[in-house]
């Protein structure tokens, strides 16, 4: 008899876990596609999370652009130093 209870509890736990995973997948998909509230039950927190994800994405892109720009400046400075070293060696 105890095995039936454990099997039943495992079955219900597995179904609940699957249902939760599907709900999370649906929520993440709605947020990632930047859809507004898909259901009346969606709260302002989900919209806030979507805005935060969007701002994080924009911020990350700006950071990557700044890194590429800084790398260009450093490359230019290194080229100038190399060139000045070559000129210095020629003068010696």
Classification by helices and strands: mainly alpha
Rounded to an integer in angstroms, the radius of gyration calculated over CA atoms is 28 Å
Characterize the biggest β-sheet.
none
Work out the strand percent: under 5%
Cα shape: elongated
Counted up, domains total: 2
Helix fraction bin = over 70%
Order of helices and strands: HH
**How widely separated are the two ends?**
97 Å
Quote the average pLDDT. Answer: 77
Number of helices: 2
Low-confidence stretches: none
Query: Number of DSSP strands?
Result: 0
Could you describe the 3D structure shown?
There is one protein chain. This protein is mostly helical. It has two domains: 1-33; 44-92. The protein contains two helices and no strands. The chain has helices at residues 2-32, 44-91. It is elongated. The relative contact order is 0.05. The mean pLDDT is 77.
How would you sum up this structure in a few lines?
The protein has two helices and no strands. It has 92 residues and is mainly α.
Write the layout of secondary structure elements.
Layout: H1 2-32, H2 44-91
Key phrases:
92 residues; 2 helices; 2 domains
């Amino acid at each position: 008899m105890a095995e039936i209870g454990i099997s039943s509890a495992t079955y219900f736990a597995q179904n609940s876990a699957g249902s939760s995973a599907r709900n999370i997948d649906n929520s993440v998909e709605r947020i990632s596609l930047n859809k507004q509230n898909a259901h009346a039950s969606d709260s302002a927190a989900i919209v806030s999370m979507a805005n935060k994800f969007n701002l994080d994405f924009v911020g990350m892109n700006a950071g990557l652009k700044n890194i590429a720009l800084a790398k260009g400046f450093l490359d230019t400075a290194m080229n100038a130093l190399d060139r000045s070293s070559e000129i210095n060696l020629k003068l010696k």
